[in-house]
Amino acid sequence: MPRKVDSQFVWMDGKVVAAEDAKISFFSHIIHYGTAVFEGIRCYDGKLGPAVFRLKEHLQRLRRSAKGYFMEYPWTDEQLTAAISDLIKRHKFKECYIRPVVLTGEGFMGVRPRECEINTCIAVWSWGAYLGPEALEKGIRAKITQQRKFMPTALDPTIKASGHYLNSVLATKEAAAGGYQEGILLNAHGRVAEGAGENIFIIKKGTLITNSSEESLLPGITRDSVLQIAEHLKIPTRIQQIPVEDLMSADEAFMTGTAAEVTPISEVNDMQVGEGRRGPLTERLQKSYLSAVRGNLEGFEHWLTKI
Ligand SMILES: Cc1ncc(COP(=O)(O)O)c(C=O)c1O
User: Fold this and answer.
1) What gap in Å lies between CA 50 and CA 57, rounded to an integer?
2) Distance CA 30, CA 275 (A)
3) Alpha-carbon distances of 281 from 110, 128, 129, 249, 254, rounded to whole Å
4) 13 alpha carbon to ligand 1 midpoint, in Å?
5) Which residue, judged by its Cα, is nearest atom 5 of ligand 1?
6) DSSP string covering 211-241, please?
7) Domain shared by 65 and 209, yes or no
8) Residue 3's pLDDT band (boundaries 50, 70, 90)?
9) Considering only CA atoms, which residue is closest to atom 1 of ligand 1?
10) Burial code of 235-262, b = ≥16 C-beta within 10 A, e = fewer?
11) Ligand 1 center from residue 108 Cα (angstroms)
């Protein structure tokens, strides 16, 4: 099966190899038990030329995720930054998606990862609008899935681990089977947790509302960026639980994520949200976010690492 991404090289434990040679052993712990942590990062072509958005925060989260599963790796953030920069240049990409993965490799077989290697790999590829080219403007139709988000007492949702995504895989499958573009998972209490790969925001009477990580979600770097931009724009913000009724009766709603950026939600479970299209505050925040990622929002240039 041909690969659907245009990666030509992969950085593996300090070496750059051709994409077709980027292989791991069948006996790697990750294959059997899902033990990897990863990041999703974007490089945008903006005011400074190609630059990576909030790289420092993504690398901090990667390290914290790895620590959460006892997978410490020998690379400093400076070394990983250099590796990412080198990979982007080799591909001659101006804009791309960046996927660092820290995985548990070969060692003893068995659930407890005893004396297993820890491998660090990075790939880059071209990736446009994650939820489709029209989604940013028109919004998406989302489904609240039967699949619930795992409880923080089972797994720590603030860790971005590969195994955690089986939960999201089932939710996206369920949503797609019903003809929806994305799934929204409720937490164990029946309140909104997050999208399969995005955080959720609603707007009510001019206030921007999102939930906290206690509600079973990965606190996104895009979520944090949008909250900071909202403060800059003097849009009132509130962190609070989101019962389903609040999502359904919101004036506006949108999803945030590195891949999805700021994507309006036009419908949930076939019911129109607000006016059923990108609302005015969503549009303002989205435009400001898309300016910030390209270095065009004054005061936020420090979020970029030039390649
Ligand atoms: C489950 C989940 N929640 C939230 C997010 C948003 O995180 P970020 O904005 O850091 O990309 C992602 C994407 O990484 C995700 O997979």
Assistant:
1) 18
2) 45
3) 51, 23, 20, 16, 10
4) 25
5) 198
6) --GGGT----HHHHHHHHHHHHTT--EEE--
7) no
8) confident
9) 197
10) beeeeeebeeebbeebbbbbbbbbbbbb
11) 32
What atom of ligand 1 comes closest to residue 225's alpha carbon?
Answer: 9
Domain CATH number, residue 97:
3.30.470.10
Count of domains observed in the chain: 2
Show which of 66, 93, 125 is a domain's final residue. 125
* Residues designated catalytic: 160
Residues 113 and 171 in one domain: no
Domain membership of residue 149 as a residue range: 135-292
Q: Which atom of ligand 1 is found nearest the CA of 223?
A: 9
| Mutation pick for ligand 1 pocket among 199, 229, 303 (CB with most ligand atoms within 8 Å) | 199
Average pLDDT, the chain: 97
Closest CA to 263 of 252, 275, 254: 254
pLDDT in tens, 257-305: 999 999 999 999 999 999 999 999 999 999 999 999 999 999 999 999 9
